[in-house]
Specification:
The complex is a heterodimer of chains A (220) and B (123). Chain A is α+β, with helices and mostly antiparallel strands and 220 residues long. Chain A has 5 helices and 7 strands; from the N terminus they run ααβαββαββαββ. The chains are: A alpha+beta (220), B alpha/beta (123). Chains A and B meet through helix 1 and helix 2 of A and helix 1 of B.
């Protein structure tokens, strides 16, 4: 992999910004739940001072909410940390299962907001390829964004990964087919640069029902 | 008479605790988990105020706000959002939002806004 072209780098920065904004949104939602629970504790304490005893069951329920939200925030921050570290190495051996799971976690809020359900079908065995993880995530995002914008009434997508001898194919498939054919504007010039950076290509297959991202298995 | 409030949020934990706390302050609280659900509720019930999350699945906050105001032009709608940009705040107010508050919100301030909405409605 050579120099990173300017458009791909700029788009990468935008992608990083969008994901970071989404993470901050998620974390503020967690904080809002903590804030209201803290407020409820104050309310209960005030009522106890007025002679109304605190129900231990209510405290137990609050403790459960705190634990659940701490687990949620911990997952968000772990994913954020992993995402931040994808920029560490220009090219490294990447476990595609792990990177796809990270991708799905980072983009879950976007798919939910669009009302989409996204299923994945990954091979049983881990698939490792040398690639640039951050740019791969960015490219997966472009594919997902396009697949959602081209989707029809049925808001359901499948992300399927399959291996061939020399490549790995990642399909973004809509069971009823994409409503739009892949337009000439997709991928954009910056997307084309990303594909070149990764030595990948992108096609539409199955009569426009799916877009296919092909990644080389060997170093490029 | 207690203030009649509809809280709309897809975060169940947030919705439940807000309903409990506002109920504890003497308000008559209903909940909805989507903008569509809220639209159906405002068509059959009269509320003093609707407290609505700005970013929910399937319908963006601007569209939800517009449809709610079309259904009930006098409805006081207070938007709550995790992050708000100034241009969004201005656009929401132009569409008729009474207030746009950031989460975590101060319940005292929210209660005050609901009282303002009630006073306006009574007038």
């Amino acid at each position: 992999m050579g120099e990173k072209p300017a458009k791909a780098s700029e788009m990468g920065l935008q992608f990083f910004g969008r994901i970071s904004a989404s993470i901050s949104h998620e974390l503020k939602n967690v904080l809002a739940i903590f804030n209201e629970n803290a407020g409820l504790l104050e309310d209960l304490t005030y009522m106890a001072d007025q002679g109304k005893p605190i129900d231990p069951k209510r405290l137990e329920k609050m403790a459960g909410t705190f634990k659940k939200q701490i687990g949620r925030a911990d997952d968000i921050l772990k994913n954020m940390n992993r995402f931040a570290h994808t920029i560490d190495e220009p090219v490294t051996d990447v476990n595609l299962h792990e990177i796809i799971e990270l991708f799905l976690a980072l983009t879950a809020r976007f798919t939910i907001m669009q009302g989409y359900k996204l299923d994945r079908q990954l091979p049983a065995d881990p698939v490792m390829i040398p690639t640039a993880p951050f740019f791969l995530l960015n490219l997966l995002w472009l594919c997902l964004e396009f697949a959602m914008s081209a989707g029809g009434e049925e808001k359901s997508l499948q992300l399927v990964m399959a291996e061939t001898e020399d490549s790995v194919r990642i399909y973004f498939r809509q069971p009823s087919g994409l409503a739009q054919q892949q337009p000439e504007t997709f991928p954009s010039a910056a997307g084309e640069e990303l594909l070149a950076v990764l030595g990948a290509d992108l096609t539409t297959e199955a009569d426009g029902q799916e877009i296919v991202l092909r990644l080389p298995k060997s170093a490029y | 008479m207690s203030a009649k409030v509809l809280i709309v949020d897809d975060e169940k934990d947030f919705l439940d605790i807000m309903a409990e706390r506002m109920g504890g302050r003497g308000m008559d609280v209903s909940t909805a988990t989507s903008a569509q659900d809220a639209l159906e509720k405002v068509q059959t019930e009269s509320y003093d105020a609707v407290i609505m999350d700005f970013l929910m699945p399937e319908m963006d906050g601007f569209k939800a706000l517009k449809l709610l105001k079309e259904a009930r032009p006098d409805l006081a709608i207070i938007l709550l959002t995790a992050n708000v940009r100034e241009e969004e705040r201005i656009a929401a107010k132009k569409l008729g939002a009474m207030e746009v508050l950031e989460k975590p919100a101060d319940l005292n301030m929210l209660t005050q806004k609901i009282e303002e909405a009630r006073t306006r409605k009574v007038r």
